[in-house]
């Protein structure tokens, strides 16, 4: 059986950002984002930003990289991929040039041919309707709406004027607000300073803007949300226009959805919003993605997940089961969205294996922050003192456990020298380049029951792949207490950094007690809800909520806490809440109450 575990286990390409004032020194980290996936002729095709190519898979668990053939603009963000007739069409974003379209009948064997563009757009998405008519959706702005237009299928030129489709309503839709857990990123003082600086730059120091200009300034410099990454799915005669909000660097990065009876609207906010949302757990964020069908009758969703430590665009990908429920509502199962799952699992299936490693003791050969290896946070890591093969890190599960899977997560924390004259692409006043070199990540995983005698559980010391979030699975289980990883070789010869050595399996004890009593107090603004419960001995909790008691489609996973603010609510909507407790032995569902 095939299993996968988010972040998606694939070869993320390295991005190199030139350090200002040092032309030959770069910061390097992996990135992929803004993913489009289609199922075409028995394979899944994945096109992410900043990869200089695409990936294929037959089962969603293993991905193979393919470099682009043909003159594809690899530095254009958010590549869109769609099947139109016998062709696969691709397009991407540019503010500087008119955006072309590219097509091929076989991405694996034939180069993409170019269809010259006639206008500029950002974050595009094509839809070929059942009648053969073609539509383009695009937009990425905190001041401009998501737009759409019909295209001529032969020339790919617009048939008429663009139609504004969606605008943000952050005063009503809580999930559209900016900030980590919706705490505004800028204070009023910072906004005023930014406005004053622009006025001074244009020789208008002390000028008092009128009301219209004030509103525009607040759009530019305030906490106004970005709406971006549209994706259209047609299902049972309805058009589901999906969009991302509200900042890829925040844990609450999400996808919302509107519904209409025609491809260019008018659109109405769906009841279930945001439909893709993962604010808690090991890796957070579930915005700017695509909804796709598999080879059967199932739906999936792929989204951008954040690290955003080295640079705000340091990101990964996540894949989850999706569905249209009996009422036609689009939803996504992200309850345990960064735990191992079967590729053939049904939506809302509970995980087969529980997390065994949270908060467990850690030892390391050298370095700092070894305890970060088991804190369930991809944004923190242990770093060894050297890049030698003798470096290792070990977790103690505190008793012999039935381990079924281990995910090894390598972080990046390095600077790289490049040759003089190396080409860099300038993007947002930053000089960057995609490193198209094929790197390798090599390691050995060992296990022990007593901390003295070790056996090799997995040997990737000769691997020819660069898998920074590798997953090892033993369906029959391994009886071990200690898990130790030895880093043998890493890209650029960097010192090993591990953000998570995560073990999953089956405990033999009791499940946690049920959370029966809790408070779910909704704030006056209608968008925030404070949820709290009695502290217990569970490893963690999943706060589930939805607009109906049988539609608890949203979740916020927490560890070591007994309260959490839920800020993604829509004003005027009903809210039902349930708190599930979990430990190493299983999940105990809570009771559902109306907030």
Entry summary:
By secondary structure, this protein is mainly beta. It is 4% helix and 44% strand.
Question: In words, what does this structure look like?
Answer:
With 595 residues, this protein is mainly beta. The protein folds into four domains: 32-182 and 223-342, Tachylectin-2, Chain A (5 Propeller); 188-221, no CATH class; 354-506, Sandwich (Jelly Rolls), CATH 2.60.120; 518-594, Sandwich (Immunoglobulin-like). The strands form ten sheets. Strands 27, 28, 29, 30, 34, 35, 36 and 37 form an eight-stranded antiparallel beta sheet that branches. Strands 14, 17, 18, 19, 20 and 21 form a six-stranded antiparallel beta sheet that branches. Strands 31-3-2-33-32 form a five-stranded antiparallel beta sheet, with no helix packed on it. Strand 22 and strand 23 form a beta hairpin. The radius of gyration is 24 Å and the shape is globular. The protein starts with a strand and ends with a strand.
């Amino acid at each position: 059986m095939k299993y996968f575990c988010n972040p998606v286990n694939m070869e993320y390409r390295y991005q190199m950002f030139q350090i200002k004032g040092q032309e030959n020194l770069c910061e390097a980290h992996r990135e992929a984002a803004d993913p489009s996936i289609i199922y075409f002729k028995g394979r899944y095709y994945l096109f992410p930003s900043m990869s200089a190519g695409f990936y294929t898979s037959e089962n969603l668990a293993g991905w193979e990289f393919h470099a682009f053939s043909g003159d594809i603009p690899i530095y254009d963000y958010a590549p869109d991929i769609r099947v139109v007739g016998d062709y696969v069409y691709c397009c991407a974003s540019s503010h500087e040039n008119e955006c072309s379209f590219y097509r091929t009948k076989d991405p694996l064997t034939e180069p993409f041919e170019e269809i010259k563009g006639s206008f500029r757009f950002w974050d595009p998405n094509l839809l070929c309707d059942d009648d053969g008519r073609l539509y383009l959706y695009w937009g990425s702005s905190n001041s401009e709406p998501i737009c759409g237009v019909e295209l001529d299928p032969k020339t790919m030129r617009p048939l008429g004027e663009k139609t504004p489709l969606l605008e943000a309503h952050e005063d009503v839709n809580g999930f559209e607000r900016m900030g980590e857990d919706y705490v505004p990123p800028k204070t009023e003082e910072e906004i005023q300073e930014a406005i004053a600086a622009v006025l001074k730059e244009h020789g208008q120091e002390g000028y008092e803007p009128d009301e219209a200009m004030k509103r525009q300034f607040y759009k530019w410099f305030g906490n106004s949300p970005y709406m971006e990454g549209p994706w259209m799915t047609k299902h049972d005669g309805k058009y589901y226009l999906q969009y991302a909000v509200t900042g890829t660097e925040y844990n609450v990065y999400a996808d919302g959805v509107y519904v209409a009876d025609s491809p260019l609207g008018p659109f109405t906010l769906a009841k279930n919003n945001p439909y893709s949302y993962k604010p808690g757990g090991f890796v957070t964020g579930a915005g700017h993605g695509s909804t796709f069908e598999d080879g059967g009758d199932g739906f999936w969703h792929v989204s951008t997940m954040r690290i955003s430590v080295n640079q705000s665009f340091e990101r990964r990908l996540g894949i989850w089961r999706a569905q249209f429920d009996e009422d036609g509502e689009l939803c996504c199962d992200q309850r345990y969205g960064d735990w191992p799952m079967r590729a053939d699992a049904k939506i809302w299936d509970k995980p087969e294996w529980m997390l065994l490693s949270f908060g467990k003791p850690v030892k390391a050969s050298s370095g700092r922050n070894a305890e970060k290896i088991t804190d369930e946070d991809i944004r923190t890591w242990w770093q060894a003192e050297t890049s030698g093969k003798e470096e290792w890190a070990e977790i103690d599960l505190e008793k012999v456990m039935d381990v079924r899977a281990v995910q090894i997560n390598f972080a990046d924390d390095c600077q790289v020298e490049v040759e003089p004259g190396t080409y860099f692409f300038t993007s947002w006043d930053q000089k960057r380049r995609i490193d198209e070199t094929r790197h390798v990540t090599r390691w050995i995983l060992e296990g022990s029951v007593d901390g003295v005698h070790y056996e090799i559980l997995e040997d990737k010391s000769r691997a020819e792949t660069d898998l920074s979030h590798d997953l090892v699975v033993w369906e029959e289980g391994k009886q071990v207490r200690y898990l130790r990883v030895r880093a043998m070789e890493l890209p650029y010869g960097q010192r090993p950094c591990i953000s998570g050595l995560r073990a999953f399996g089956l405990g033999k004890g009791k499940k946690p007690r049920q959370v029966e009593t809790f408070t779910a107090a909704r704030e006056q603004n209608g968008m925030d809800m404070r949820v709290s419960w009695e502290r217990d001995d569970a490893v963690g909790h999943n706060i589930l909520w939805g607009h109906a008691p049988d539609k608890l489609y949203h979740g916020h996973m927490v560890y070591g806490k007994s309260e959490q603010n839920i800020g993604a609510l829509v004003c005027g909507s009903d809210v039902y809440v349930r708190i599930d407790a979990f430990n190493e032995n299983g999940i105990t569902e809570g009771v559902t109450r109306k907030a």
